[in-house]
């Protein structure tokens, strides 16, 4: 497992947020909670390019994960 730190220069805090949008490649790949909050206060649209880092790989949401609530299927047929 790769260990990363916050991408902001000089910050050694563990990452809490991971950039998922390839379109926002100029943003840091990882942010700690404090730097994400600062980004969110400055530009909430940029902060939307991040998702929480999962510390348990088995809980990462995938297409086959029963915990994934983003399914597009409906119970109506």
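Sequence proposed for the structure above (77 residues):
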């Amino acid at each position: 497992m790769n260990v990363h730190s916050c991408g902001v220069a000089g910050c050694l805090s563990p990452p809490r947020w991971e950039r998922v949008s390839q379109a926002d490649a100029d943003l840091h790949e990882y942010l700690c909670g404090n730097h994400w909050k600062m980004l969110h206060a400055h530009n909430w649209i940029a902060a939307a390019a991040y998702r929480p880092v999962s510390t348990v790989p088995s809980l990462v949401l995938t297409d086959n994960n029963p915990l994934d609530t983003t399914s597009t299927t409906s119970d109506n047929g």
